[in-house]
Design a protein that fits this description.
The protein is mainly α. The protein has two helices and no strands.
Length: 64
């Protein structure tokens, strides 16, 4: 998932550079939206996984 985020961020940076030099963007808005949703889903899974692992560690430490 980390590589997917890097790839999407690379595409965003190329598109911003293309827009700045006056060439315009090459993606439609729904494709940008889909890439943003993928990044957000990946980040939410990462946070959710971190919280689950943290909860398991706390339960193990409470046992005598």
């Amino acid at each position: 998932m980390k590589y997917i985020n890097y790839f999407i961020l690379l595409i965003f940076s190329i598109e911003i550079f293309s827009l700045v030099i006056g060439s315009g963007t090459h993606y439609e808005n729904h494709k940008f939206g889909l890439m943003v949703i993928l990044i957000l889903v990946n980040l939410s899974f990462k946070i959710f996984k971190k919280n689950i692992n943290f909860g398991k560690v706390i339960e193990k430490n409470r046992q005598p």
